[in-house]
DNA sequence: ACTGTCAAAGTGCTCC
DNA sequence: GGAGCACTTTGACAGT
């Protein structure tokens, strides 16, 4: 951030302005004023640590939540599901193949259709593959989506949703960075403004003008102000 | 047990 | 009509 200056336009500044204009004049302008999510703290402290590696630490065998079923991937592509809670009174264990589990995941389904919403938890391997793919291109063509879905072992819809959410996270993070940059920029301008006001006050408080000969005015006599302590010559 | 955070998924909108 | 986005809901999970 030290590269920010009040006079010039540093690289950082340019990037900032570019990104800000993208945010304001680009995508977001398609909608009415972007209501900030509570996680964006303008002029507040910066926020959440990077979320990118969140999935990376996840145990590949961690439960996969689908509706009210916890599914744990076992060896040989078999899934153990605990229906209706994590081993509670009404829970019952069900074994199914990974394919069955995926079929169970299905595509869009609304909570209104009886069953509760499903919650998939990606394995670290899946997350890594998606992350790698996102780094290559953050928007997928239909073919790329299908291919990636096949490789990762998810439905195309799930890959699509993951990319959508990932783009949203990237954008949110960038907004946070931009806000922080803007805050610092504002602080600097405030400081600069205070300094200029002090200078002005000093000039106004200076003693009456001193009569001197100004060389740039053909040697004519002129008046120049005397600034406290040092002459402006 | 409670709370906050994160991320998957649902919904509705706009744009092309 | 499909794709992407903003916004929202919801479940998992970690920290207290």
TrEMBL record:
Q: State any single GO MF term.
A: DNA-binding transcription factor activity, RNA polymerase II-specific
Taking every annotated instance into account, which residue ranges of this chain make up the domain Homeobox?
113-173
Q: Which Gene3D superfamilies match?
A: Homeodomain-like
Question: GO cellular-component terms in the record?
Answer: nucleus
**DNA-binding interval(s):** 115-174
> Gene name on record?
ga06466
Q: What is the lineage of its organism?
A: Eukaryota, Viridiplantae, Streptophyta, Embryophyta, Tracheophyta
Origin: domain of life: Eukaryota
List UniProt keywords, sorted A-Z: DNA-binding, Homeobox, Nucleus, Transcription, Transcription regulation
Write out the biased-composition intervals (Basic and acidic residues). Answer: 52-61
Q: Where are the residues of the annotated region Disordered?
A: 20-121
Which family is annotated? Belongs to the HD-ZIP homeobox family. Class II subfamily.
The record's subcellular locations are: Nucleus
**UniProt xrefs under SUPFAM superfamilies:** Homeodomain-like
Name of the molecule in the record: Homeobox domain-containing protein
Note the InterPro entries from the entry: HD (IPR001356), HD-ZIP_Homeobox_LZ_Class_II (IPR050762), Homeobox_CS (IPR017970), Homeodomain-like_sf (IPR009057), HTH_motif (IPR000047), Leu_zip_homeo (IPR003106)
